[in-house]
Amino acid sequence: MISWFRVNFEMSEQLPLLVRTPTPFEDESLFGYLLRISEANGYTSLAEVAPLAKLSVKQFNSKHLPVKKLAGILGFSQESLDRYKYIETSQSLHPRIQLLGHDLSSANNARRLSIKSRVCPLCIGSNGYISAFWDLSLALVCPRHGIIATTKCAKCKNTLSWNRLGVATCRCGADLTGVSQRKAPSSYVDLMQIIHLKLARIPISTLKQKSGFPLSDFEKIPLGQFLDILFAFNSFTLNRKYSASSDSNYAYLNVIDTACNIFSDWPNGLRTFLRSDNNRHIYSDKSFWTRFKGLYRVLNKSLWFDANCNFISDEIIKFGIDEMGELNDTLFEISPIALIAYYSECCHSFQFKAGSHSIGK
Ligand SMILES: [Zn+2]
Ligand SMILES: [Zn+2]
């Protein structure tokens, strides 16, 4: 297949340029874009494009994709693909991972982006390209169409691979726009809309949702931190066996489900979570207050837990006050100042010890 030509012969390291390099859409997935290019140039999979770019197929199938090298073969400037810093440096112990300029670096980088291909059959049918939203590991439901993402081919039953014939065509030749659609729970769709708008830097306060998520509190949380919070609460549950480092759709659905349970119908979802047995492993003591303090301290140790998360800690403390049964002035060791008023209001008889309170961070 001859669809490449060479330019700048004086530069021996210059890689061949592809004949057809359509401009990437602003929000396009990098892997989705490469697939679109591969298809446009008549290749049958990304595996054929990889050696032309002097990359291994393994690199093409991982987040370890040298984005700058790719820019070279696409004839773009080095910076043009900077919005996809899937891996920036392998020298760094903590590589900065970016997606569309959002910093997704965290203690557990590996799980913020998925290397697996998922698509919404309706979106690829109407858009013709794959949004970078689908690169996020938690993107398993289409925020626009409310359906579960396609992760397997209905015809050959294989997991959807980036190494396929085209954006909407499986390796086996099946048309991915024709697969049956499964409706997702509405709270999942609402959560996906929040993530999608954050990725697009559009205010979420305009969303009309019925799930009762704390939108105004979520508004000020950057995407990377927001994802960290969702993953963190999942790790507090008994379901943490699914939150191993594997890139598993099942594990990600579990994160979504837990987050929807906790943050929908705010703060009642959180209260139900705190009452449940699911988080008993964090605090096994019988006294409620001891248990409550344990969770609070676990949260406070988390890197993502900053002032943006006061609405969570405030609710945990309110829950503690409301359901403690008896008052304990230990509460003031960690109680945010904002809660003193709440405490005073509902507990007039309590003698407040001034100056003994401090918030974790
Ligand atoms: Zn869709
Ligand atoms: Zn197939």
Describe the protein.
There is one protein chain. This protein is mostly helical. Among the domains are: 4-101, no CATH class; 186-279, no CATH class; 288-346, no CATH class. Helix content is 37%, strand content 2%. The chain is built from 14 helices and four strands. It has helices at 30-40, 46-52, 57-60, 67-74, 121-127, 186-199, 215-219, 223-235, 249-263, 268-275, 288-301, 310-323, 331-334, 338-346; strands spanning 4-5, 17-18, 98-99, 102-103. The protein has a two-stranded antiparallel ribbon with strand order 1-2. The chain starts with a strand and ends in a 15-residue tail after the last helix. The model is unreliable at 1-15, 239-244, 334-341 and 346-361 (pLDDT under 50). The structure holds zinc ion (ZN) (2 copies). The site of one zinc ion has 6 residues, from helix 5.
Give the averaged pLDDT, no decimals: 76
SS summary, helix count: 14
Structural class: mainly alpha
Helix fraction, binned, reads: 25-40%
Strand order of the largest sheet: 1-2
Order of helices and strands: EEHHHHEEHHHHHHHHHH
Strand content: under 5%
Distance between the termini: 60 Å
Bound molecules: zinc ion
From the alpha-carbon coordinates, what is the Rg to the nearest angstrom? 24 Å
Gross morphology is elongated
Q: Which ranges are low-confidence, i.e. pLDDT below 50, for 5 or more consecutive residues? A: 1-15, 239-244, 334-341, 346-361
Q: What's the β-strand tally?
A: 4
Largest sheet: 2 strands, antiparallel
